[in-house]
Design the sequence.
């Protein structure tokens, strides 16, 4: 996405920062990740190309499914065959590794890159533990974007983006009346959870969201306001199709790409699928990050962690990787294809689409930033809450029973 001269300059700086010597054998880096969809594969190739040109040898180990990918990483670490780097979400997923001394830090890379100055507080809180940097963030994802088909909206006679929850429901009803699938949905537990969190943030508001997820306030969970969030979440059930259970997220995105469905609530990684289909934001599809100009902007993302090793070349490879993936040129090249926004604000955004530019503008307003729930809860708690929500979504369960189950899950973990 950048001119060759700019990319070459960024690579040269990365090499200098890490002290990599081209005269030596390439620094091999086995990288485990779960970026396997069309758009994701194109994105991660940008990192591989930059790393290879900087004196490394990227050995790609793509594993479909986030849970499966993380399980493979854990098994390899425990089995003494750890990768050079592995993808985790920017969350508490890797905190146990840190506490058990199983990760190398990249403090010198973070200092050289001034990470403390260029990254949002919620990202820093996830990667900087006990004063040390244990992960290199590669993107900022917002998991609560609304993507819609321009053609579907036109067919349904919808001419504007909704400014309130009630307006959104009315638009879903119009899409249904026009013979379209109103809401493209993938009935998997993690998709149900991020859809719930989107509604929670947008309808319940930031204060209630933080009281529940950050503070584990039982009174907040049992409040009428939280019960209403559960009621509103279940209202979406009337607008999904019978084929939604078990559907992958990118297959749901394809329904919007084709115009078969009207809207999908999904993270901004979905934009990669639109790009792969040669669709243009603002022309073929639209995007909005919530209702109105002050809607909360949930901050999430991905990062590479670096398993513990004392091998000098492996450590050099980890530092080189941490440097190149966070460099400005690589950030733009990767995120323009991934659908996310860069982890730093000092990049040339001229090649980014209108959705990404909107996200970069919003992220500068700290009052709108809201940590992803996984930044506030442990993996065990997240899993327990997913179980509660999938049961509520898929069964004939009352909101009162779901509310009690949610409260118990938060209290017991």
Sequence:
């Amino acid at each position: 996405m950048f001119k060759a001269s700019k990319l070459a300059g960024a690579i040269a700086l990365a090499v200098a920062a890490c002290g990599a010597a081209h005269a030596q054998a390439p620094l091999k880096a086995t990288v485990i990740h779960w970026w396997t969809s069309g758009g994701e594969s194109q994105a991660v190739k940008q990192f591989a190309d930059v790393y290879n040109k900087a004196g490394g040898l990227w050995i790609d180990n793509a594993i479909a499914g986030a849970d499966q990918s993380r399980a493979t990483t854990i098994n390899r670490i425990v089995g003494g065959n750890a990768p050079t780097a592995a993808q985790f979400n920017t969350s508490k997923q890797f905190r146990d590794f840190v506490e058990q001394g199983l990760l190398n830090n990249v403090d010198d890379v973070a200092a050289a890159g001034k990470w403390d100055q260029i990254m949002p507080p919620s990202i820093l809180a996830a990667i900087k533990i006990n004063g040390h940097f244990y992960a290199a963030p590669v993107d900022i994802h917002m998991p609560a974007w609304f993507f819609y088909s321009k053609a579907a909206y036109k067919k349904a006679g919808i001419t504007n983006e909704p400014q309130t929850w009630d307006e959104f429901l009315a638009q879903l009803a119009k899409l249904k009346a026009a013979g379209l699938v109103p809401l493209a949905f993938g009935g998997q537990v993690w998709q149900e959870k991020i859809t719930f969190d989107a509604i929670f943030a947008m309808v319940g508001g930031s204060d209630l969201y933080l009281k529940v997820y950050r503070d584990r306030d039982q009174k907040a969970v049992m409040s009428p306001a939280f019960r209403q969030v559960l009621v509103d979440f279940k209202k979406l059930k009337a607008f999904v199709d019978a084929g939604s259970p078990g559907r992958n997220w990118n297959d749901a995105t394809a329904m919007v790409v084709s115009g078969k469905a009207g809207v999908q609530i999904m993270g901004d990684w979905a934009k990669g699928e639109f790009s792969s289909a040669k669709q243009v934001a603002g022309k073929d599809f639209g995007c909005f990050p919530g209702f109105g100009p002050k809607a909360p902007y949930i901050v999430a993302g991905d990062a590479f962690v670096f398993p513990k090793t004392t091998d000098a070349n492996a450590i050099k490879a980890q530092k080189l990787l941490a440097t190149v993936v966070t460099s400005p040129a690589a950030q733009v090249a990767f995120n323009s294809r991934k659908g996310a926004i860069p982890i730093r604000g000092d990049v040339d955004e001229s090649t980014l689409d209108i959705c990404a530019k909107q996200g970069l503008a919003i992220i500068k307003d700290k009052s709108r930033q809201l940590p992803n729930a996984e930044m506030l809860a442990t993996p065990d708690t997240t899993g327990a809450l997913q179980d509660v929500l999938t049961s509520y979504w898929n069964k004939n369960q009352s909101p009162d029973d779901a509310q009690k189950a949610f409260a118990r899950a938060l209290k017991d973990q």
Summary: The first helix runs from residue 4 to 18.
